[in-house]
Amino acid sequence: MKYITEAESTKLISHSMAYDAVRDAFIAIVQPETRSFNVVQGHGSNPVNTFGVKASSTESLAGLKVGSFWTGNEDKGLPRHNSLILLFDQSCGRIGVAIEAGKVNAYRTAAADAVGTDILARKDALILAIFGTGHQARFECAAIACIRPIAKVLVVGRDPMKARLMAEELCSSGLDAEVTDAKNACCEADIIVTATPSRSPLFEAQWVKAGTHISAMGADARGKHELPVELYSTARLFCDLPEQSRLIGEFQHTHEQITITALGSVIQGATAGRLSEQDITVFDSSGLSVQDLYIGQRILEKWENSD
């Protein structure tokens, strides 16, 4: 079995690699031979520490990702999120490669947002509102800045000190950023990204202006909820995988009659994305194992070629 450490995978990953891998994964998930299996969710001996197992197979890849969230790690100076990608050697059923992927997972999640935004947001979208001030929110901003010439980032957070710190960090990285409240952010933004563990809506539907694109990145378990349900009846809705989105994603809060379109079918040209400059588009990312397989394969190929 090949083993790629966290330090090695961190050196190999980039926003461009993640974008290409995740875009291919969106296409793969809508192919008839691809299977995405039921998500397993559990917790550690202390129930506040949680983990999830996502598995899938495609025509050429099979494997799984174990992702964990350990709440006390921040006090220890350790990341709260960690991930391990396992790819099978399909000739014998053994694990062919294990990839420590904590930082890779942050890139992968942000890449899903970037692909969705690139496909659905207006080409002239310049103002980004980010809800959330954690580790992942920073990656979301960086990934979006790779696909749109972001003129300003509006930071919305529950903790004013954390919001100010994030805005300062974004400014240091070259992005013009400022702290604001939820209403002002929604009224100004062309792109809204939510990256929180929220279980109640972060803003009101009437604050969102026509033509806005929204990426909901936080819902990946039952009960999580970032967006106002009133948006569902007026916006065009897209996601990574409809059946998973309805089960554990943002669209678990919709009714069955509402149409939700897989982003992969839009990328392939089988269905339409944004129809007009006035459309409000919503993309829900609940996170797919297929994305982990594709990005894991890219990491493996680059690792082998670097020897």
What does this structure look like?
With 307 residues, the chain is α/β, with parallel strands linked by helices. The chain folds into two domains: 2-104 and 290-305, ornithine cyclodeaminase, domain 1 (2-Layer Sandwich), CATH 3.30.1780.10; 113-287, Rossmann fold (3-Layer(aba) Sandwich), CATH 3.40.50.720. It is built from nine helices and 15 strands. The protein has helices at 6-12, 15-29, 102-120, 135-147, 160-172, 182-188, 242-248, 263-267, 289-305; strands at 2-4, 35-36, 40-43, 50-57, 62-69, 81-89, 94-100, 127-131, 152-156, 177-179, 191-194, 213-216, 236-239, 260-262, 281-284. The strands form two sheets. Strands 10-9-8-11-12-15-13-14 form an eight-stranded parallel sheet, sandwiched between helices. Strands 1, 2, 3, 4, 5, 6 and 7 form a seven-stranded mixed sheet that branches. Helix 2 (15-29) packs across helix 3 (102-120) and helix 3 crosses helix 4. Pfam families: OCD_Mu_crystall. This is Ornithine cyclodeaminase family protein.
| Fraction of helical residues | 25-40%
What number is the mean pLDDT?
95
First and last CA, distance? 16 Å
H/E series, N to C? Answer: EHHEEEEEEHEHEHEHEEEHEHEH
Q: How many strands? A: 15
Instruction: Give the CATH architecture of the largest domain.
Output: 3-Layer(aba) Sandwich
CATH topology of the largest domain: Rossmann fold
What structural class should be given to the helix and strand makeup?
alpha/beta
Shape: globular
Spatial ordering of strands, largest sheet: 10-9-8-11-12-15-13-14
Biggest β-sheet strands, sense, barrel = 8 strands, parallel
Unreliable runs: none
β-strand amount = 15-25%
**CATH top level class name of the largest domain:** Alpha Beta
Q: What would you report as the Rg, rounded to the nearest angstrom? A: 18 Å
Give me the number of helical elements: 9
GO cellular component, one term: cytoplasm
Protein name: Ornithine cyclodeaminase family protein
Pfam family, one: OCD_Mu_crystall
InterPro entries: NAD(P)-bd_dom_sf (IPR036291), ODC_Mu_crystall (IPR003462), ODC_N (IPR023401)
